[in-house]
Amino acid sequence: MTKPGAKPYLTTRNIEPENQETPIHFLRSDTIDYPYFYKRNHFPYPALTALHYFLPIIGLVDSPVLFSLRDIMNMPSKTIKAVLECSGNKRNLFEPKVFGEQWEKGAISQGTWKGVSLKTLLAASGIREEAAEVVIEGHDFGERKDLDNVYAYARSLPLNKALHPDTIIAYEYNGRPIPFKHGYPLRLIVPGWYAMASVKWIKQITFIDSKFAGPFQTIDYVYYPNKTNDEQAFPVTGIHVNSTIQKPLNMEILNTGTNVIKGIAWTGKGRITRVGISFDKGETWVDTELKNEHNAEYQWVSWSFTWFVTEKGEYTIMTRAADSCRRVQPMTPFWNRKGYGYNAIDTIKVKVE
What we know:
By secondary structure, this protein is mainly β. The protein folds into two domains: 11-235, Oxidoreductase, molybdopterin-binding domain (Sulfite Oxidase, Chain A, domain 2), CATH 3.90.420; 242-352, Immunoglobulin-like, CATH 2.60.40. The chain is 6% helix and 39% strand. It is built from four helices and 23 strands. It has helices at 69-73, 118-125, 159-162, 215-218, and strands at residues 11-14, 19-21, 54-59, 65-68, 78-85, 108-117, 133-144, 149-158, 168-173, 176-177, 187-189, 202-208, 222-223, 234-235, 242-247, 252-254, 257-266, 272-278, 286-287, 289-291, 301-309, 313-323, 346-352. A five-stranded mixed sheet has the order 4-3-12-7-8. Strands 5, 6, 9, 10 and 11 form a five-stranded antiparallel sheet that branches. A hairpin with a 4-residue loop joins strand 7 and strand 8. The two termini are 20 Å apart.
């Protein structure tokens, strides 16, 4: 029997570096408390403090700038509620299977981030005309065995994304300083893109005049459609339209009568406009009831459906989300060699007794 007030745990995928899933099926809030926010790391946690923390902006700029943490916190702030989803979320569901952390459905979380628009910081340095990309480097680093060398975690953004007013350098999460394991003291937040772009523990920002060639840009976080070669590869960027059933659990036993089915849906472009549910393996679909869909840019939408069932037996439940950009979850995912961007129609099975 579950004890009153019992709480779920994160699901551990790896200990060193630490990679843990959010217990997404057991959380009902649209804001995830930081103890339940999923953890995705490539390297051990860096050793740094905020005591002597400075953020340089260098490279192809008119005037290199060095910001203190206090400088940044005294600038006009912006608050954004946004989904952060690992691009490998649901990797475990790909068929045929792919290598990598075998995330199930919990490499996703959501909360409220407060910080300064990256555009505001970049404007202070003056951007030279030949600048093409902005490289954001974190303090975390380590050895990559595939390259037999040590690298820092670094990613680039094209100028149009870096200068978008909603791309922010965040210093708070849910009204408190960002927890150390999630990027304290400063973390980049790129709403609408998979979370590999939201670099933690920012060390420096550099303008360059070409495409960034770091391994986390050109080897990892790339869609490889072919199993044996790199032809037709292209980068991972925006979040695909997606949905997850939170209640009931897969393979759960239900009673006849009224059962409430609940879940979330999200997208990286526009807003969620519809979540359909099917009990006949996709032959017919019925709309679910959406919550907060009208003001949910960058956020997931909670949905629910009241299911009255009188016949005992085994059932397949499927959900399919659509967004305002006319994107719809596919029946089958776009298979790729590294297992990114899984967004096929969500499916569970239940038994009614």
